[in-house]
Amino acid sequence: MKNLKKLVLPALAMASALVFTSCNQEDINTSRTGVTDKELNQGGLSYGLAMMSLQRSVMPIGVAGETGPGNSMQVLELISTGNYIGYYGNNNNWNFNTEGTWTFTNGRMGILYGLLYGDVAKSWLPIYIQASRSKDNLQAQQILAMANIVKIVGWLRATDAFGPIVYTKAGSGDITPTPDAQQEVYKGMLADLEKNASILRGTRESIIARYDLVYNGDASKWVKLANSLMLRMAVRVHFKDEALAKVYIAKALDPANGGVIEATADEAKIGNSEKQPLAHPALISVDQYNETRMGATIWSYLHGYNDPRLEKYFKQGTYRDKTGYYFLPPTNDQPKKESKEPDVAQYASKPNFTNDTPLYWFRASETFFLKAEAALYGLIATGTAQSYYEQGVRQSFAEAGAGDATAYLAQTGVLPAATSVANNPYLQRSYSDNIASGNVSPNWLDVDATRNQQEVQLQKIITQKYLALFPNAYEAWTEYRRTGYPFIMKPADKGAPSRIGGNASMRAPERFSYPASAYDSNPNLKVIPSLLGGVDLGATQLWWVRDNRPNQ
Asked: What is the pTM of this model?
């Protein structure tokens, strides 16, 4: 382990021990190294243990009663990205000392980079090193191809959170590598997805099925995931590099290349199974800490659109013996409130998670929304934006178990609901917002004639994508920053934007900033501001943000 760590930039692969707990993160993410050809042929034990660790590191997940993954998930999504985008509100402000209130301290940013980048690296490196020594062993190369796809799932979240990351030199042995600009990271990842999909395409035998928690060793499904990730990334960059987008959209959607995820059975997810019993990591924050609750933004859309997914995504809360769907606002500025009486924030609506709820990396509904945006901008010649959009909504309803979407899609004139004391009694009259102005209904043809039709239809696509992505907060946060949609509720803490160098109108951070200690450890990080095109602060936009992004 000590020698392997030398292959990763120490300042970037931060230790992931959380300030909330004494949980030993190293025990969860320990890398196993060394494997003989005999062991590989007998089932790939050492590869397998590293693969399981790698898959579990993308979105932290552990066994029941294990608080470490729960604390990690809280930092990664519940108080940060999911909070910013309004999936969640939190019954705590942590004394304004965490990313939950946009306080990007050295320690907190180090934790986030460790979770997003370092933990993935620690489990990927043993597979990469061993397989590199077995270049003539087909099974080893197939295992590495699978590991490379998982690595991209994880590191895509890292680059979409921080911007520049070390990618092209990862595993090179350089202990002070220079990070790549985000556009170079994307180009490298797209090329690697194509390469690794080609290695797995046509593979008929299962690949270390015993240790694959996502697809049980089914190579054809790993190919579909690689192509789907390619589609996600290619669509994401079309405002900045249309030529690159067109090339990889075509590759991703070419049936000869193995297809994309369009059916529930092909979704990429990880969760509780007979192979390895796992517990949903958010439940620690939801039930034990009494902090994570339904967010104002998602409530506004689900309630305003009469959306049956509301009762699938969230449980009813209680306020003075009256049940209903009660939310908490983003970036709550109130301290934690707990009481036996049901009139404090802990009794707001909880996310409807159980230990059998999996963590989703990629769902079929996302594919249709990606196709809808590609069709809207002429990046594909088959199908229409409307048909793909409506397929996406129907697929999301099916994924949520919410019934048929026909009536929902026919709605015109409905808009997101405004907040009121009735649906948010916990903060009384200290918080209110209304995102109806300039917003859209679910009906594709219900377009404001005074606005650009293409722009309105993009807003519809991303708004419904936001609802379908729940609870994948990183993708929702990324799409909001990239497109300006969906409109989201303002932070309750009015001082939050100034903490990251932003203006008072900001509704979500643009990125995470690198911890100051990283610059001390690696002098080559000095290029980060030039790669960003701005200062290393949370208000600096990333590469894929479109030039004409609307302001709320």
From this structure: 0.93
